Amino acid sequence: MLLINSLLLYKVLLNLLRFIMVDYTEEEFMYITKTVMNVLDSWNLTTEQTVQVLGLSSQTKKRQLDKYRTLKAFPKDDLIIRRLSHVVGISDALRTTFPRNVNMSEKWMKTEHRRFDNETPLSVILEEGINGLCKVRAELDCTFAWEASGQNQ
C-alpha cells in the first residue's frame, strides 16, 4: 500500500507541477485531497485560512472541510488544481529543508521573514492568493523559481 501511495503521489506531483489537468480516477483525486488537507492541517490553519489558501468559496464551512478530509474530493477546477500544486510544492520543499523536524513546517509558515518584508509566508499567501503561493514556493524551491523566471528557455 505504501508503494502504491508513493507511486501515486509521484504521478500526481509530476502532473500537478506542470499544471496539467489529468482525468484522475475518483480514488486518485480523493488521495490528492486527503494529502493536501493533511498538509494544511500540519500547518495548523484555521478554517478560514484553509478556505483562503485553497481558493474555495468564503461560504465554505468547517463541516465541508471535514468532508474533504475523509469523504469527498476537491472540485476539479483549474485554479484549485494550481493551488493544490503550490501547496504540495511548498510542503515538499519544507520537507527537504527540514528533514529531521516535521514541526518546523508550521513554524516556518508562521515566522516573519525579511524576504517577505517581515511578513509571515502564511500572511503573504492569505493576502496575495495564488501569487502569494508562487512567491512562497519560489523562496523555498530554487528549481521552481528558475523555471518560473523563464531563464531555462
Keywords:
0% strand, globular, 67% helix, mainly alpha, single chain, 153 residues
Count the beta strands.
0
Topology as a string of helices (H) and strands (E): HHHHHHHHH
Sheet having the most strands: none
| Percent of residues in helices | 55-70%
* Percent of residues in β-strands: under 5%
* Radius of gyration based on Cα positions: 15 Å
| Gross geometry | globular
Distance between the termini: 39 Å
Oligomer: single chain
Could you say how many structural domains there are in total?
1
- What structural class should be given to the helix and strand makeup? mainly alpha
Low-pLDDT ranges: none
Mean of all residue-level pLDDT scores: 84
Give the count of helical stretches.
9
Indicate the topology.
Blueprint: H1 2-17, H2 26-42, H3 47-54, H4 62-70, H5 78-97, H6 104-109, H7 121-128, H8 130-140, H9 142-149
